[in-house]
Queue: 2 jobs
Job 1
Amino acid sequence: MSIYAEVIHETKPEIIVEIGTKFGGSALFFQDLLDLNGGGKVITIDIKEQVENKDPRIEYVLGNSISKDVVRHIKRSTRRKRTMLVIDGNHHRGQVIRELRRYRGIVTPGCYAVVEDCYIDRGKYGPWYAKEQFLKENDIFEQTDRHKKFVIGVCREGWLKRI
């Protein structure tokens, strides 16, 4: 959470697109950080409605993150906006690589695409493998070592910076 606060303060995104709303806690956290750093908007996507008390500052998108309609909506909403991406939905390798491919263009140079849960208690996990494949396919993102600042975290090796 501290690294997110630092990154948002440093890069000043106008929009954070989050894939994987669940109960909405991280979307609210991101929105509060944006407000503390001059403003902005969170757009959060989930396939299932689970947020009981929606915050009016946040846009909640219901649907599959890789569907044409959802991708089109996100691309329209982020056009010409300084944008950060957080992937924390379905953790299967195939889903994560499709999300990275479809949304890579919305991430503004200097901002981050964050792939959550690259590791679990048993080691490398689906998002890690997707992230590695994605980095081999393109040269507009670089692996960073932001995760090394703290001993623990769910984004180990998941901080990708758009060059």
Note: The chain has a mean pLDDT of 94.
Job 2
Amino acid sequence: MLSSADEPYVVMGIVSPNGSTSTRSQIFTGVDKREARPDNLEIYKGIPGGLGITVLLMEHDDEDPDRYKAALKIAVDKAALGLVELIKMIPDVGPVLSPIAGPIFSAVSPAVVDALNDAIGAADDRIDTQVLALSAKDMVVLAGQAPLLHFEGIDFKIESPLLSGEGASYKAYFGLDALRG
């Protein structure tokens, strides 16, 4: 598919103490320089216990769906390692839980990679991958006390590092809301 504008999307692998999941943003068509596009996806809902988010930025083409499966596996494994480190920091129970968390994440990693690969739907151009790790404390502070930030019509609490490759650069932005009981 030839286009003068980019057609980016983000695939996210989310790892929490409650398990793992994946999701994909919409494919944003006709994106030009200095444009921002919001998407409203709920990637986690629950008690703040730490969160690892693998952000895989892709450029939509139409190719083989398994082409980037190895890259997804590496990204998911990195997120799991980051989450194990966050679990270690949980007072009292962290040192007890972290040794069993690694094998659990290793066991679910293939399912997460398959889900991410399916979410992509085509082996498009991989732009970049970053892993965001949030401790339970980070989640509480960001949801309740941190100011809401704004960029080109997007409200957010945390942003990814710059995701760059294939002549393009992007960021992913995330909001965090406190649980209402």
Note: The longest helix spans residues 94-120.
